[in-house]
Specification:
heterodimer; A: 205 residues; mainly alpha; globular; B: 235 residues; alpha+beta; 2 domains; 6 helices
Chain lengths: 205, 235
Amino acid sequence: MRMFKLSVIGMTAALALSAVGCSSSDSGSSGSSGTTGDSGTLSLYERLGGKSGLESFVQSVVETKILTDADLKTFFFAQVATPIPAGSPSAKQIVVCFARFVGTALQADTYPGAPVNDPANTNNPNHTCRDMVKSHRPFLNIGTANFDKFIGYVATSLMPLVKPTATKAGEITQAEFEALAAALNGTKGDIVNPGAPASGPFVKP
Amino acid sequence: MSAAVPAYLPRVAVGTGTAAVLLTCLVGVLHLPFAAPLLRKLSPASLCPITHGTPAQIDRAHAIGGAAIRASATASAPSRPALGFELDKTTRGDLDAWAARYRVSCEKIGGNENLRRCTDVPASAVGEPPGAGLLEEVSFELRGTGELVNVETMRRHLSPEQAVRIVAEREETIASGVGAPSKTGGEATVAHLSRGFLSSYVAEHTYLDYRATVSATNLGETGVMAREQYLSVRP
């Protein structure tokens, strides 16, 4: 279970790194030091764009990658329903929770923190961010192909950001990329459900 | 004069109510985490109210993605290649005819009529050189009104050499139709893709009405994965 939690953190951190690609400024660090990297004066959290950068990134990946993928979009049908079913967070609430989760992994935020307000989610306007493992493992019936598609999106979102020397917002080093890849390596067995179909869709267990 | 209530009616009402309560409880219990494996066996994807989105939900997801993609584009695509299909024109009937012609097996994704996945597709069926082998998956999405808006492919278990050959060929074909990519990452070389887990190459061609993406990702034991996506992002 601990390994799974670490893998979720690692994967989410990897996702979050791509946030730098969506954040054009380095002013959103929320005053936190985050984790100092090996690439100059800006910490990794700062190069991620801070809270706003992380939120922009998660939103961008969900919208431009996941929601356009014929399989992975089925995991988000609740978020595009009107109204959103009771018990389901809205896309906005998911974005804020993920950003907090990554910020916490980088010691720059608090998870779960205060309930996330979204008046548009009439059935669940104040959503408390949930434990990542407990809320996902039994319910995201992830097969091998869907897992591979997902981490493929992570990798291809990160790759354009890799620079020989990453010193400003929007850049990561090869070493940071490889460290995140190493964190992801070997997690497939913890995340993938052997009984799930290789490819989608999301099948609520 | 009042009609007498049949004697059996209260018993039927109580029995029906009890059955409904028990059924509701059973469904509730099946949704608890410990019962997940059993429910997975019992519940076909097509019956799940979450998996089985309405055409409006599928269109809504596509519209959100399309709007986000258009936000980073500045011009319309000079052409919109999509492996021989015509975005915003090809219909469900056309896809059925294509599948029959190439003897390709396709299924609805999650019981959704507008999401389809075909497996073990010969390369020639999508206009690629026969030597490119089988595609593990070719998936399609149609609008609620029935026109094709998304074609995507996936191959896994490739060697770096195979992946480089495939993505280079696909990228060259796309670029010849729409021009240079608007964003790239990594390198389409054997050395780069062999570097380690998640070493990747990606090329995106983003326009106001179209996005084509070619990518390759090292998945470790699963080999290299090559993917293509041809997406209409017209409003």
